[in-house]
Amino acid sequence: MTSSLFDALQTLPTLTYQVVLLTYGLVNGTPYTVRTIARQLSLSETSVHRLQADALAHLRGIPAFRQLAGTRQAVRRVG
Known about the structure:
CATH architecture: Orthogonal Bundle
Distance between the termini: 20 Å
Number of strands: 0
Order of helices and strands: HHHHH
Radius of gyration: 13 Å
Mean pLDDT: 84
C-alpha cells in the first residue's frame, strides 16, 4: 500500500478503517464479503454498507486520494 493511500486511510474513524481494510483485502490479501465483515465486527450488513459508503465519501474529499484514484483510472484506460 502506498504511503499516500495509507495516510488517507488513517484519517478514517477506527471502525470505518477496519471495514475498508477487510473489504479490499488490505489485511491479508483476501477481500471479505459484507456478510463476513458484519459477522467479524458484530455489525449488521446494512451498517457495513453504510460504513463503506461513508469511507468512500470521506476519502474522495482528500486530495491525495483523488490523485491516486485518477492515476488508477489512467492505468485502467492504458491497460
